[in-house]
Amino acid sequence: MNKSLISIALTAVMLTACSDNDTQKTTEATPAVQPAPVAKAELGTFGIDLSARNEAVKPGDDFFMYTSGTWYDNFEMPADKTRYGAFAVLAERSEDQVKAIIDDIASRENLTADEQLIADFYHAYMDTDTINKRGISPIQPVLDDINAVNSTDDLTKIFGQGWLTGAASPIGGGMWFNRLDPDQYELTIGAGGLGLPDRSYYLEDDERFITIRAAYLEHIATMLAYAGIKDGKQRAEAILALETQIAEGQWPREKRRDRDLTLNQLNRSELATTYPGFNWDLFFEQMGYQVPQLNIAQPDPVNAMIKLVNNSPINVWKDYLIFHTITNNAELLSDDIFNSNFAFFGKTLNGQEEPRPRWKRAVEQMSGTQSLGFAIGKVYVARYFPESSKQQMAELVENLRTALGQRIDGLDWMGKETKVNAHAKLAAFTPKIGYPDVWQEYDGLTLTKDNLVSNIRSLREFFQADSVANELKKTDRNRWGMTPQFVNAYYNSSFNEIVFPAAILQPPFFDPNADPAVNYGSIGAVIGHEMGHGFDDQGSKSDAHGIQRNWWTDEDRAAFEAKADMLAQQYSLYEPISGNFVNGRNSLGENIGDVGGLSMAYHAYKLSLNGKEAPIIDGTTGDQRFFMAWAQVWKEKRTEQSMLSQLRAGTHAPGRYRALAPRNHDAWYKAFDVKPGDKLYLPEDQRVRIW
């Protein structure tokens, strides 16, 4: 047995203290040495909030409500939230910690260069008096440039500057990794430019969407008025009609995530002849890229957008650009503009009753990878992330790797040839835990205390210049796509890496003092989920080196696709809102990650027990604690509007349905005595077992 599986790191450490006089001989009676108290789990007695359960609900009827129903029925959504759950709890903790860091920096003199950037940006963001006095004027030069547009080339120039100005564009481009050679960067081109969350908001005639479109029309007219446009309603109708045409030309989301369809590489010299009618030279000139290597992620939609650019009236495009420039910059402008924008995008579209406090919006703006997030993150890690957590996570990752390797060996649907390649990919997984080994540097970046929009532009220019400077260099594998204080995790198929920022390594996801079953069911399954992305319906199209290629036999791939289809069908039956179902195909990668991640984590948990039975704690078995921990990770409450947006625009199933992933695991049925007739019961031949 692998020692790392036996001596699992997620156990409490007991310490004893000795007196200074314990080596002296004495004839006096000495009291018994009292052991130091065992560190207590943050949630409950062993890492789960049992008070959240609704034991009147049968686990086999609704496992989400069984594990979290009392909480769900009694929790009142905060007015500044559209969803709330485990992720929100940790996000709020992270925000408070980052605020403490900023407050400390702002209270001191003789700051370092990075600290000065943080202090200046925060001061500029919080200086509402100056921001309100300036109104719309900080973006007036951009609006003037839009008003001066007289030709398609003028339009193209504005589109190409969208990364800097906030103007929208039906055609977008960004630097990413070459999927056929991950050591190279390439520019990926696709279609975009919508104001509503998804094309379905424009194209469906359900009463919900009709109501939203009517409110959107009013919102467009309101925002145009800030630019001095008086006949806003008529012009808003033309903008909505244009965006509807953009929506008609776009692919559905499930098609956009198909890596076979979205890999369409060509050289720069081929672009003008393959996608004619657009001034690509002028477009790229605004970004600064030399662009030797490209990938057109959405060929037909890009052609459709080119036709729209050439055939739609320039005046309508100008109004479209004015509207989106104002609304996309509203957070940086005066309160009247911000509040008007929030009234639609916050309240109407997502059900958020009031804006988040300004300091929280500042923290969010500062914490991104294209902002000061790593400058803050470096301090965050030093203050709030113990090195022991990184070591414990590293061991747990290896335990999950061992478990998945054993599960691959035991697959009855995969042949030996494909298993060799699967093992090679698993062995090549690179885990990144907590924080980067190489921190982002900000040399050359200058910010001010009194101009928020200028600071945002300076940050955008700084990171764009960095991207352009590295365009022709070997890809940087030290880069992180999330900052340490961000509550999430991800898998990068091009680098075959799994990444876990420090902020997610806290209860309920990870607690060194929790029962091992809880940690395996929470962070263990999250690790498994990210590993599972390397083997989901799309991640499985890349090999151990991150190269997109078919490493499967045809027979094995067909067997995998059949199982994936079953899972897509299973999730597509969930109906969170009447007439609106989970998109099982669009969320398939995440659902494979959930179901597979649970399998890996459960397997690793059993290995960690080394053949022994888990103890009964507070009347719960180890298996029950494992599955309840998973379900409580996905404890959440949403506004109905937010739920609709998630169903149409998100790649994840809502949390209450992610909590139901255990219904595909035999051990769950035994743990909770789930039987035929229970609502979640699946016959054995309908339980999806992929990894």
From TrEMBL:
The keyword Ion transport does not apply. One of its GO terms (molecular function) is metallopeptidase activity. Residues 488-687 form the Peptidase M13 C-terminal domain. It holds the Pfam family Peptidase_M13_N. CDD domains: M13 (cd08662). Residues 1-19 form the signal peptide. Transmembrane segments: none annotated. Its cofactor is Zn(2+). The keyword Zinc applies. InterPro entries: MetalloPept_cat_dom_sf (IPR024079), Peptidase_M13 (IPR000718), Peptidase_M13_C (IPR018497), Peptidase_M13_dom_2 (IPR042089), Peptidase_M13_N (IPR008753). Keywords: Hydrolase, Metal-binding, Metalloprotease, Protease, Signal, Zinc. PROSITE patterns: NEPRILYSIN, PROKAR_LIPOPROTEIN. Residues 59-436 form the Peptidase M13 N-terminal domain. Belongs to the peptidase M13 family. This is Zinc metalloprotease. It comes from Shewanella inventionis.
